[in-house]
Amino acid sequence: MRDATPQTVYLKDYTPPDYLIDQVELVFELDEQRTLVRAGLDVRRNPDSRSASEALTLFGEELLLVGISLDGQALAAGDYTLSDEALTIHRVPGDRPFRIDIENIIDPQANTALEGLYLSSSMLCTQCEAQGFRKITWFLDRPDVMSRFTTKLIADKTQYPVLLSNGNKIGAGNLDGGRHWVAWQDPFAKPCYLFALVAGQLEYVADEFTTVSGRRIALEIFVEAHNVDKCGHAMQSLKNAMRWDEETYGLEYDLDLYMIVAVDHFNMGAMENKGLNVFNTKFVLARPDTATDSDYEHIEGVIGHEYFHNWSGNRVTCRDWFQLSLKEGFTVFRDQQFSGDRSSPAVKRIEDVNMLRTRQFAEDAGPLAHPIRPEAYIEINNFYTLTVYEKGAEVVRMLHTLLGAAGFRQGCDLYFKRHDGQAVTCEDFVKAMEDANGVELTQFRRWYSQAGTPVLEVEQAFDAGRLTLTVKQSCPPTPNQPEKLPLHVPIKLGFLAADGSPARFQYRGEFCEEATVSLTEAEQRFVFESLTEKPIVSLLRGFSAPVTLKIDRDPEELAFLLSYDSDTFNRWEAGQQLVSRIIFGLIADIQAGRTLTANPVLTEAFRAILADAGADLSYRALLLSLPDEGYLGGQMAVVDVEAIHQAREFVRLSLATALSAEFQRVYAEHHQDESGCFDASAVGRRRLKNACLSYLTALEKPDSYALAETQFRSARNMTDQIAALSAVVNSRNPTKADCLDSFYRQWQREALVVDKWFTLQATCHMPETFATVQSLMQHPAFDMKTPNRVRSLVGAFSQSNPLHFHARNGDGYRFLADRVIELNTLNPQIAARMVGGFAQWRRYDTDRQALMTRELRRIVETEHLSKDVYEIASKSLA
Ligand code: B3K
Ligand code: ZN
Fold first, then answer.
1. Is the CB of residue 314 below 6 angstroms from any atom belonging to ligand 1?
2. CATH architecture, domain defined by 9-201
3. Is 252 strand, coil or helix?
4. Which residue is closest in CA terms to ligand 1's atom 2?
5. Are 340 and 304 in contact (CB under 8 A)?
6. All residues with CB under 5 Å from ion ligand 2
7. Which of 583, 862, 875, 877 has the smallest count of CB within 10 Å of its CB?
8. Does 278 contact ligand 1 (Cβ within 6 A)?
9. Which residues touch 338 (CB under 8 Å, ≥6 apart)?
10. What residue ranges do the domains of the chain occupy?
11. What does the alpha-carbon distance between residue 739 and residue 729 come to, in Å, rounded to a whole number?
């Protein structure tokens, strides 16, 4: 049990800060176990304060106080009160600015939560978002307090030759005892969550970027010496992002220096600290032989994301943490646009929607559902969710769809101009969109406050050249929101003629081939005229809204759309619907004990895809992909993990059997060594070929074993090597143990590749997987203090291996609960993420429900439970 019930924070309770801190002068005497922090704060009463109190309360946790003074006068013990979470000075001047000086000690080595100042390998680094600065010193740790920071770092020169902080370097020098100092100044006022420092033995790769107005910006990427050869792609990605933001949003970089530091121990992907991004190594390091094509894309995406935050997040920041989606949803939308422009917009959109529907829709349908602007939290770190990020991005995308690219850009221009240097709200963002476009978005605002995934049910009627679509919208109840109001939903649509060509139609008097209609009522009719024949409708093109679409279609109609829809998203979607429908039929057969038979409509559709010589090979690989087991489970009233797996494997095997010659031909046609080549066609060839390999593996035949083993042994790039190893591991290939062993020996010094080795085994569908996972926990390379490693084994098993995690005997559940309890004391944020594996317990049969809730209760009853774990576990049970 927790020691005390943790408090809930509510959006409705927001009040402006009573004090502001204009300037901060920080001095750090850095040491692994005993870092001394001196903070000088220039404080004044906030003219907008609503309180009459004379006290000043600063947040602080896990700090050892050395001394405190007000305007140079040391305070006595009776002048202030110290608690576990705050320092309150009873009386401070209300009528004039004053100065607070604090001295305190922190222990970075003991900090395994990786929040505040901590040790990663041998370097010191910080993570302050959301509320980590209070673990460095006492402060008004809230995003609406923005200050100018000056930071002086003092450390041993041999152990910490590189000393970095935000902004520009303003001085450096040597001190006695082998120590040195470096001072930094950030000219931009910022909330303390954007503060950062890094100290260590780091090498760096340098480049430069000339901005549109001709300013030269120094770019530096800092890594440990053995990683210097893996920074090229990150640097190029940074330059691409800088140019793209100028061209697409007219936004230019503002400091003279942009630094990125890659660290091994990091709770999430990366952090946008002003001028000094700190990154998980996973999103920086890449070399063709160590990183896959997807890794290359993710690196570019995350580098872009953090860079784009410089405007959407840093120059204009959030008033409070309930507004998180203001910066995250918007910035995810920006990074999605960027990645689409850099590769294939069609493929990028499908990948994003696939993830949203598989994972965010599940969150929206479960006990942790919340609106993109939540109304209450216990631990804000638990709200860095798929809903706030990915659904948040969909909401911004809908504004883009409704206002058009030009209108959206005008709205953004106004938003940045109006709010530069301010801490604002989601409301301010929508208001800027309205004002810049002269439109009214009252109903649209409900997307910010209403949780849950809306369902659209569509019926069609055709008569004398006129098609009527009747659309009903509803939204299932979510925690604390039993009733839902109709939302403003943009529906992009088009029609196909019998020969597959686009059918022209008239909508509201205008002739067109595609239209975006606005659904605003609970039930609404849309009429389309001047059609020469009854068309096939293509609805929700590009996935124009984050909703579940229900429309009656037979398999032939889906196959038709899969062949002809000109909308790349809907073409892929038709294939997914077709396969899903067949899989659900097979699941019913399995549950009723009937024999399974292959579906000829699907075989012929896949034959056509394999025969197609279309240019975008990555897209073709996606057309061949089967819906994820998690996505299929999300559509079942009671998830039957075994039947889903069996049915999906049956489809894979039947397709492989019926089309083995085609799969072999396409494989051979595209299998060539193009290591180091990352243009769209080389990446596409690898994707398509490896998709074929995966089907051929299902045949469990000596020649497919040989094909996988040969590719594994001869591969010179990680994409091909890991795809082949996956084929070997997910089959009865006799060389499995040997391949796994040789892969480990080859890559044991590359942490990120070793992570892949763990993940591959944790997500394997073969029967021995759980025993393997248990023995991997004892592997010398496994470490509970390294989040990437925990995610690669514990996270991968519990979140990406439904078949084995949900094993009937409950072993998987007990395993996860044990890990959560272990992590709770080491790293609450990571522990809370892992509890997520239980959140969907209501979706399973009663036996599994009982097993999962037992483990959740065991977690809730653990002594010294962190706020993070308590919130997720108790809300999951509620
Ligand atoms: N803003 C950070 C996330 C911080 C998470 C704190 N628990 C990374 C990002 O979204 O860019
Ligand atoms: Zn972000």
1. no
2. Sandwich (2.60)
3. coil
4. 271
5. no
6. 328, 331
7. 877
8. no
9. 240, 241, 244, 245, 248, 300, 301, 304, 308
10. 9-201, 316-449, 455-553, 748-878
11. 9
